[in-house]
Amino acid sequence: MSRGGWTLESFDRLIHEPARLMIVTILNAVESADFLYLQHETGLTKGNLSAHLAKLEEGGYVEIEKTYKGKIPLTVCRLTDAGRDAFSRYRAQWEVFIKQTRTSRK
Amino acid sequence: MSRGGWTLESFDRLIHEPARLMIVTILNAVESADFLYLQHETGLTKGNLSAHLAKLEEGGYVEIEKTYKGKIPLTVCRLTDAGRDAFSRYRAQWEVFIKQTRTSRK
User: Fold this and answer.
1) Which residues of A touch B13 (CB under 8 A)?
2) What residue ranges do the domains of chain A occupy?
3) Facing residues of B68 across strands?
4) Which fold is adopted by the domain A13-97?
């Protein structure tokens, strides 16, 4: 279905997965976010959040920095430029989708 | 993340999967569609399309009717009312998402 400006292939599955979509949406709205903040906001378990962040890091969308705040270890996550671009493209596809679909023809 | 009006749980995964999203979007725009038409529009293999339609039928979103046009067997697919409602809800969630996100804060 190429008519619509959005196709099966064009959806970025790295972002489309709902848990990762939440993570990327949050990170897109901020400069950077601590792991615990992300965990609180997404409601994901530590293991799930780690796994999704690792995938996003592998894909070049997220940078993860291990640091300290005083003596407390901090894991700071931020979107890369590639990640912000990918989010923009993904969001733009949904804008097209919204414009080109109607809720029902009943 | 409940602030946004869309949450991890609220995404209907039966529709969210990209291949099924294409199928549902096409069916939402028409009264009914033949299997071969859907296959052509989605670019899915026969096996993949069958599998996704079966899931949508199990979920009560699609009705599948085996019939004939003359002597040619036809498989006619249509969205149920529940399927149209689910599509409307899913689409509405993306409208909220578009309104509440910005492409970047760079």
Assistant:
1) 18
2) 13-97
3) B73
4) Arc Repressor Mutant, subunit A (1.10.10)
Total residues found in chain A within this entry:
106
Asked if A103 and B95 count as a contact pair (C-beta separation under 8 A), the reply is no
Give me the residues paired with residue B1 across strands: none
State pTM to two decimals: 0.85
Using one digit for the tens of pLDDT, what is the confidence trace for A38-61?
Answer: 999 999 999 999 999 999 999 999
CA distance to A11, A41, A79, per residue, from A23 (Å) = 17, 9, 10
User: How many C-alpha atoms does A101 have within 13 Å on its Cβ side?
Assistant: 28
Across all residues in chain B, what is the average pLDDT?
89
CATH fit for domain B13-99, picks 3.20.170.30, 1.25.40.10, 1.10.10.10, 3.40.50.620: 1.10.10.10
Q: What distance in Å separates the CA atoms of residue B3 and residue B32, rounded to the nearest whole number?
A: 37
Q: CA-to-CA distance for A79 and A77, rounded, in angstroms?
A: 7
Residue A29 is given by DSSP the state T
Interface of B with A in 36-95 (CB under 8 A): 41-44, 81, 84, 87-88, 91-92, 94-95
Longest dimension (CA), chain B: 62
